[in-house]
Specification:
single chain, 529 residues, alpha+beta, three-stranded antiparallel sheet, 21 helices, 9% strand, binds protoporphyrin IX containing FE, transmembrane helix, Cyt_P450_E_grp-I
Length: 529
């Protein structure tokens, strides 16, 4: 959603904040003193005989100091290798966590005990920005979440609905292609790290709110959106110490969240008012739809009016859900396209093969833009996308779960109620026991293996699995595939003169983005201007 998925994905950005580091520093000094007094502690501990193993922890801060760093998915994988390969226990402040790092353990959490672990931890940001956790991603497991999930899968993100947004995708991708063509004609490199999120923002905003509300140029909304993504990235220090009720005020987080809520409220109120006045002034049903297909906001407002959604669709619910779908749709797809292009540029054989497939399948008509109806023929491109999602899942740690109701027995371990569960999908997708040369980008590995995004292949979980798995798979993959096919069909790609290869360093935030902007030189293959 932060990328909400994601965009609501667990990220590390707040581990770097100054208040966080200061508080951590003071706590570390206190803790270190206590630690020296008890220096006979073992380096790997088990809290009780039935508790999963975990690294040694300091009093007060637990294992927080071991999480400081910019690659938490890698740190967690390394810690797990040493202290708990399947299931590892961590203490983050007052929170008890377990970290899941293998397909077997992921299956236990997201299939065998899926229902018990289907809740989400309480986050201050969810309460203050997402209207009291009224969004699907952050809602605790229960009746409200079940009804909203139904609405989401049957109404907002169903395969049929995603198909109905086809003209939006095609129009926006063809605008992107036209602007890249202008750069190509001028012999200039393009910055795909800026262009791709702008594209996915435009597509998602039209699907969520309609063309007349297109927000791509709306600076106010962009600022709100970026801020929410940042705040939702990672555990805020106050979420790690929920008993210290004064902490959010002290760290300034509460004030910041309240300000964000006001800002997002004013943007969403304006959009909803516009939508209503457009409807009431329209004289025909066709007019009331505006210039796009029925959008997500229209559907939610209709459900509110008809009162048969199973739960009250209040204005807060409408705002929380539109905001989260907007956030979920933007960064996840953009970063997938960016990583695909990066990997292909570093592997010219793969780039050439994917490009040949697209050009052969879509014909040699140099005036044509890519037609979505032909995309099912692109089997190799499907493998490229799957391999990208395996190595660079936008949500490497999924969205944290919690067994809010009761204790669970996981293998032989007892997991007490209210334990946070972090599933390291990034580590699972690279488990060397299941993937040959797991760190290499090899799309052909999917020739003899079906590409399964349904959450039934626990060795490959870029969209999560179980009850809480991503409901935006069709929406996301449709955007990714059309964009990649168009980039490959219309242009040949190379590195700017001074560059030898693409640096693949990751930047962990709301989603797992590239650390450095992706600048590439396009050469036009088809005439698109
Ligand atoms: C390449 C694209 C995408 C990827 C890789 C992705 C990945 C994920 C992941 C890993 C989760 C957490 C699953 C879990 O906790 O088990 C998630 C949840 C979610 N995603 Fe996506 N996502 C993508 C696109 C989208 C899009 C386009 C939307 C909506 C427009 C969306 C909406 C959501 C929502 C609402 C949830 C929360 C579900 C719940 O908690 O019940 N995602 N996504």
């Amino acid at each position: 959603m932060e990328s909400l998925n994601q965009n609501l994905m667990l990220s590390s950005s707040s581990f770097f904040s100054i208040p966080f580091l200061l508080t951590t520093l003071i706590a570390i000094i206190l803790a270190a003193t206590l630690f020296i007094v008890r220096n006979h502690r073992k380096l790997t501990t088990t809290a009780g005989s039935n508790s999963p193993p975990g690294p040694w922890k300091l009093p007060i801060i637990g294992n927080i100091h071991q999480m400081v760093g910019d690659q938490p998915h890698r740190r967690l994988r390394d810690l797990a290798r040493k202290h708990g390969p399947d299931v590892m226990r961590l203490q983050l402040g007052e929170l008890s966590c377990i970290v899941i790092s293998t397909p077997e353990a992921a299956k236990l959490v997201m299939k065998t005990h899926d229902k018990a672990f289907a809740s989400r931890p309480r986050l201050l940001a969810a309460d203050l920005v997402f209207y009291g956790s009224k969004s699907l991603t952050l809602a605790p497991y229960g009746e409200f979440w079940k009804q909203m999930r139904k609405i989401c899968t049957l109404e907002l993100l169903s395969a049929q609905r995603v198909r109905s947004f086809r003209s939006i995708r095609e129009a926006e991708v063809s605008d992107l292609v036209a602007s890249i063509a202008r750069a190509a004609a001028a012999g200039k490199a393009v910055d795909l790290s800026t262009m791709l999120p702008a594209l996915t923002t435009a597509i998602t905003s039209r699907a969520a709110f309609g063309k007349s509300q297109q927000l791509t140029t709306d600076r106010a909304f962009q600022v709100v959106f970026d801020n929410i993504s940042e705040v939702l990235g990672g555990f805020a220090i106050s979420d790690l110490y929920p008993s210290l009720k004064w902490l959010p005020a002290l760290t300034g987080l509460k004030a910041r969240l309240e300000k964000l809520r006001k800002a997002s409220d004013s943007v969403l109120d304006r959009i909803i008012d516009d939508n209503r006045s457009r409807k009431s002034s329209a004289t025909t049903a066709a007019e009331s739809k505006g210039d796009d297909e029925e959008n997500v906001l229209d559907i939610l407002l209709n459900l509110q009016e008809s009162q048969d959604a199973g739960v009250p669709i209040t204005m807060d619910v409408i705002k929380a859900v539109t905001l989260e779908l907007f956030m979920g749709g933007v960064d996840t797809s953009a970063s997938t396209v960016e990583w695909s292009m990066s990997e292909m540029i570093n592997n010219p054989r793969i780039l050439h093969k994917a490009q040949q497939e697209v050009r052969q399948a879509l014909g040699d008509d140099r005036g044509n833009s890519v037609d979505e109806a032909s995309l099912h023929r692109l089997k190799y491109l499907d493998m490229v996308i799957a391999e990208t999602l395996r190595l660079h899942p936008p949500g490497p740690l999924l969205v944290p779960r919690e067994n809010r109701e009761r204790q669970v027995e996981l293998n032989s371990y007892v997991i007490p109620a209210n334990t946070h569960v972090i599933v390291n999908a990034w580590a699972v997708n690279r488990d060397p026991r299941y993937w040959t040369e797991a760190e290499r980008f090899v799309p052909e590995r999917f020739v003899d293996r079906s590409i399964d995004y349904t959450g039934n292949d626990f060795q490959f979980i870029p969209f999560g699995a179980g009850r809480r798995m991503c409901p935006g798979v069709s929406f996301g993959t449709a955007v990714v595939k059309l964009t990649l096919a168009s980039l490959l069909f219309h242009f040949d790609w190379s590195l700017p003169a001074e560059q030898k290869s693409i640096n693949l360093t990751e930047c962990f935030g709301a989603t797992l983005r590239r650390q450095y902007a992706l600048h590439l030189l396009p050469t036009q293959y088809c005439s698109v201007l």
